[in-house]
Amino acid sequence: MSGFGLVASPVLAGAPIVRDGLLRLDSARREASWAAAQVVVTDDRGRFPVDQADGPPRLRTYAAAGIAAAPPPDALLLGEADGVVYWGMQAPASASASAPSAADSGGDDPVHWLDLFTAGADFPAVHAALAATATALLNWHGRARFCARDGSPTHATNGGWARKCEAEQHEEYPRTDPAVICLVHDGADRVLLARQRVWPVGRFSVLAGFVEAGESLEACVAREMAEEVGVAVRDIGYLGSQTWPFPRSLMIGFQAVADPEAPLRLDDDEIVEAQWVTLDELRPALARTAWPAVGTTADGQLHLPGRLSIARTMIDAWALARTASGVPAQPHPRDSNS
């Protein structure tokens, strides 16, 4: 086995909502859409009201007409799905202060305030897309209150998809920072995993990094793999992408091949452990569903990213392809660095 492809879309890659650019520019149509629209609400901690009464968690949305007669100035036009127009709004801090949180239980109201990290992997596709879009837009608005060109205050326009400055009417649009994420394997049964300095012991994932100015995606893959773990990669191939609105990234997935016998040289500022892991060693970790929380005591086990991340989609796809290939594993020494 050498190359492989994703067998499922990353959780935050579906984007089944209709992004109507013309509607954003048409104030009359925007206001007319409000009467029958639904509103996705989030608080200042990035949490959403989630209904967990029956089955998987679902966003609880609210009738726009019950909130206001017309779109408030801070309302964000998220898009349309199944004939319904959705807007997003940030609730006052008091709205969720006394509401149930992820750690609460009991009570008659099945709604809890959960963030995208906690519940997003189990959302229906439309709800995941709405929550991701609302999170990304609100994060951008919170960081774009002043014009980058003249420093004057800015205000939202075009249904929340642009901001204009007061001094010169300069227009700015939501920022997205491209980042590559690459699953490095040996062409057979080993994959290279690493642990960032800020992660708990036992938490490993594939390698990633931001694209620099003037750099192609493939060049970024080669540079980041060399910088973070000191490996030279070849046969770089695209796998897929997904939004990562924490705060405004686009994760662009690749695979590449490297020599597992080459020594690993870690970037001590970011990476504290890296190791080649065989498929057999990976299987127990694939059966576990959650990363250990920050501050928890290490349990001596390997933990992989949760299903919300494209990293897990890539690892799952590699493991499935490796299993289906029937290539016999070869005896080899354990190559690791810590």
TrEMBL record:
One of its GO terms (cellular component) is cytosol. Its EC number is 3.6.1.22. One of its GO terms (molecular function) is NADH pyrophosphatase activity. GO terms for biological process: NAD+ catabolic process; NADP+ catabolic process. It comes from the Bacteria. Its cofactor is Mg(2+); Zn(2+). The keyword Transmembrane helix does not apply. Keywords: Hydrolase, Magnesium, Metal-binding, NAD. Residues 174-299 form the Nudix hydrolase domain. This is NAD(+) diphosphatase. The lineage of its organism: Bacteria, Bacillati, Actinomycetota, Actinomycetes, Frankiales.
